[in-house]
Design a protein that fits this description.
Layout (H helix, E strand, L loop, with lengths): L1 E7 L5 H14 E13 L2 H5 L9 H22 L4 E6 L2 H12 L3 E5 L5 H6 L2 H8 L3 E5 L1
Parallel strand pairs: 1-2, 1-4, 2-3, 4-5
Amino acid sequence: MYRKIIVPIAMDQLEHGESVLGVAEKLIDEGGEIILLNVVEDLNAYAQGYMIVDFPLEMIEESRRHAVKTLEALKTKHGIKGRIEIRTGGAAGTINALAKEENADLVIIASHRPGLIDYFIGSTASRVVSHCPCAVLVDR
């Protein structure tokens, strides 16, 4: 049904991410591409004016290495021939930018039940749905 699907996977939600990956496997065209995406949040961008101490660059690099290793293992486990993208930035904006850059057909994103904080700042899934240039499937 789809030739290019982006599957964002958060490292703290691996089980749900793996479930979403299974959905992508069922929807991808033969010869299509699944892109496993992890966005490493740039916490220093959020900390300006609120914190005195910067997060060490090594911490961000370690998060990137962990994400690559974890997504490679998922790719192997599921026999996916797609590729891995690790980006740094805000989650929703980065997902939407990659969807546009790749001319993706579909983004499949996991969602959780909103907590109180989500009502104030909005959830990533909500912002992706609102601004994504392609179809979005939200899996709860």
